[in-house]
Design brief:
By secondary structure, the chain is α+β, with helices and mostly antiparallel strands. It has helices at residues 3-12, 25-38, 71-84, 97-106, 124-129, 140-148, 154-157, 162-169, 171-180, 210-230, 263-274, 315-328; strands at 46-48, 57-59, 91-93, 116-118, 198-207, 233-244, 250-260, 283-295, 334-338, 348-352, 376-383, 385-388, 397-400, 403-417, 427-435, 440-446, 452-457. The strands form 5 sheets. A 7-stranded antiparallel β-sheet has the order 11-17-16-15-14-13-12, with no helix packed on it. A 4-stranded antiparallel β-sheet has the order 5-8-6-7, with helices on one face. Helix 8 (162-169) crosses helix 9.
Length: 459
């Protein structure tokens, strides 16, 4: 539903509880692909529906149901596993892909099962015929035309001459009809699992010697790089697990700004975390795995640095970011992304440099100059004690840093007002003021309460 309608529904119940996130199709597709890989535990062939936007996983369970104790047991295990991931699903099981899709979307709830629909072999055709035409995965305009002609269910289409249907609606309608009735083949485009890049070392006798552990980790890094090089992939996130004899295992996480298969560089990043690492017990075995990797991009080293090149291409900056992330944590090394928002404190967001993935829309160009906006913005607006107020401008005297400030010049106002969809509507008049001591400040008046605040400083 539209955001405005959802907002109205939440406000009817008194308390404002609506949480809104921007729609990002690429992120949704990536999450669905990860879920498809997770479903390989139930089927060797898992694909994603071709309808846009994709929201359906397709599993070929032919020949594997006996491994799970039958069809109902397989469905139960699949549903319980998805529920543990906090996903509510509707499931359909049939002999054809089209029929299973139709039952999952329009057949649930008919036989008392709210989230499950199964087409039995002896009742398969009957259960499909009574479904609505939308179960054929037809375009919206074609469905609208069919409904205007008085056709409601799939059974209404069957008596009609195929030649006339093809002449009126083309071959796509007959193709979908044949697919759902098992008269035309339909293939599942599989989602491939990423290759496993993991190496392990088991000690003959548990040890607590740091030198021995570091030597083993160095050899594991070299072996992992060999595996990655065979597939022409570079590691972006590497996990080193240390398993103890009696204590719970711990792991070290190494994130990279750029993909790499340099064993010396990767070991240095692990060594940064090992410097201040204290063992909990004797180590029995160590495992190293690349949980995130990407195809390598080969670049020729440049003799002369090209001015204006993107900082992402700088190996020195990448090394600095990776070492800082290893010392202070991956989520603490961030960059700030501009956003299109009138409210200054909402006009940017922090994104980790390592593991960063674009989401939502960002501001492509800055519409102001440093002279119009302050170089330093306070985390929170600071309430000012105003002495003398000018009705047509900023206060001529106010208290700041325990000193009385006198305004010599000012520019403004610049009105900033947020939209009605915000929980707290913001209406402010901003002024650039210069005090007699030479300070240039960015202050605003809250139009709702009439209070004055300091929000930033120039220079």
């Amino acid at each position: 539903m539209p955001v405005a309608e959802a907002t109205g529904l939440t406000r009817r119940h008194g308390r404002y509880t609506l949480h809104v996130e921007p729609y990002d199709p690429s992120t949704d597709l990536e999450a669905l692909e990860k879920l498809a890989v997770w479903c390989h535990r139930f089927s060797p062939l898992v694909g994603i529906d071709e309808i846009q936007p994709p929201e359906t996983l397709l599993l070929d369970v032919g020949g594997v149901t006996s491994l799970f104790g039958g069809e109902e047991s397989l469905i139960g295990q699949t549903r319980r596993g998805l529920q543990q991931l906090r996903l509510n699903v509707q499931m359909g099981l049939a002999s054809t892909l089209g029929a299973a899709w139709a039952l999952a979307h329009y057949g649930c709830g008919e036989a008392g099962q709210e989230h499950l629909a199964i087409a039995a072999s002896d009742q398969s055709q009957a259960s499909i015929h009574r479904l609505p035409l939308a179960a054929l995965r037809l375009p919206a305009r074609m469905l609208e035309t069919l409904q205007r002609l008085g056709l409601v269910t799939i059974a209404d289409l069957l008596p009609l001459p195929r030649g006339e249907l093809k002449a009126r609606f083309g071959g796509f309608l007959l193709k979908r009809l044949d697919q759902i009735l098992d008269q035309a083949p339909e293939m599942i485009v599989p989602v491939r699992s990423a290759p496993d890049f993991e190496v392990e070392w088991c000690f003959e006798c548990p040890t607590s010697h740091h030198n021995s552990i570091q030597l083993v980790i160095k050899q594991l890094v070299e072996r992992l790089c060999v595996l990655l090089r065979r597939h022409q992939r570079g590691v972006l996130l590497m996990i080193c697990d240390l398993h103890y004899q009696h204590a719970p295992s711990t792991h070290l996480e190494v994130g990279l700004f750029r993909p790499s298969i340099d064993p010396q560089h990767l070991f240095q990043l692990v060594h940064v975390q090992l410097e201040n690492f204290r063992l909990s017990d004797f180590v029995t075995d160590i495992s190293l795995r690349a949980t995130s990797s990407t195809p390598l991009v080969c670049r020729q080293e440049e003799f002369v640095t090209i001015k204006g090149r993107d900082y992402k291409d700088s190996s020195r900056i990448a090394s600095l970011v990776e070492k800082l992330s290893g010392r202070v944590g991956r989520l603490n090394v961030v960059r700030y992304i501009l956003q299109n928002d009138a409210q200054p404190e909402m006009a940017y967001r922090a994104e980790p440099l390592i593991g960063y993935r674009p989401r939502g829309k960002t501001c492509s160009a800055v519409s102001f100059t440093p002279l119009h906006q302050p170089l330093h913005l306070l985390p929170e607006p600071l309430l000012l004690q105003v002495m003398i107020v000018d009705a047509n401008g900023p206060p001529s005297h106010f208290q700041y840093h325990d000193q009385q400030q006198h305004v010599a010049r000012h520019w403004g106002p610049e009105r900033i007002e947020t939209g009605w969809w915000r929980q707290r509507n913001v209406r402010r008049d901003y002024y650039r003021v210069e005090t007699t001591t030479g300070q240039r400040l960015w202050i605003f008046r809250c139009l709702k309460y009439g209070s004055w605040f300091l929000h930033g400083m120039f220079g």
